[in-house]
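Morning F.,

Quick status update on the modeling queue. The single chain you submitted on Monday has been processed. Sequence for confirmation:
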Amino acid sequence: MLRARRLDERTLNLQRQGRLGTFAPGKGQEAGPLGTVYALRPTDWMVPSYREAAALLWRGWPMEQILLFWAGYEEGQAVPEGIRDLPLAIPVGSQLLHAVGIAWGAQIRGEDSVALTYFGDGATSEGDFHEALNFAGVFRLPVVFVCLNNQYAISVPRQRQTRAKTLAQKAIAYGFPGVQVDGNDLLAAYVAARQAVERARAGEGPTLIECVTYRIGLHTTADDPTRYRDEAEVREWELKDPLPRFRGYLMDKGLWTAEAEVAVEEEIREEIREAVARFEARRQVDPLTMFDHVYATLSPSLAEQRAELAATLAEPRREAVPALALGGARDGR
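Structure tokens below.
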């Protein structure tokens, strides 16, 4: 969680310096993604949204890969070799259907794997959410739906999205369990996910987990949350910050010390420094890679386009012709 928090803060700084594009911070809601992803095996699938850096880091995504994506390079979406994850999904709710498709494929093939997908409370207002849950329920698919309910769909509060008492209870209509947990409690999130993953692996179908949490920071760097929420509300949720809570728990158990944290902070600081250097070194990318991560096999038309682009890139660069020279003979200047 500390790695994710510090990377989040550094990424925000890079964006404010103009070295990254729009960024969606995850400060305050690291426990839900990390607690739930911990329940997966490497052979299981993780289907993220765009605010689960903690889960990405746990699954083995390099920090520079995440930074590259937020800098506007789709190369950052290339899933690292050997990791059963999908790229980040920006359209709200679309990834739920992808997770259901993966789970259906695993069921048809007889694979012992589970798909787990993340989404926010705003996604429960999308049609994709209902279609995904309905299909998963009908076919008893091995999929776990993790809703990170951070109270706001950009500026729309949760109470303006639904009259349901909880988001977890929406699973009842689709014939499978829904459970609501404290999304700022790492261990609560893990226990709920472990039970859901075990159910899915045993052929007992899907589960919806609602992790109640809070987005302490911005929706994205293009957002001004002071326009739609009260600072007193933010301060109240800051008292429930998952990092101090888990730090206190570990210290009470004698498993953590202030000295250990100083050492870990220094290690993380150096890791992020090196990751930023690698990210900035990778910003000069080969345009041909745009063809590499969409289809397993290129269609004939795309193969032709790739060849044409490769030939164009191989040509010597020509000097631009001044605009004045182009128009001078016509207008007498």
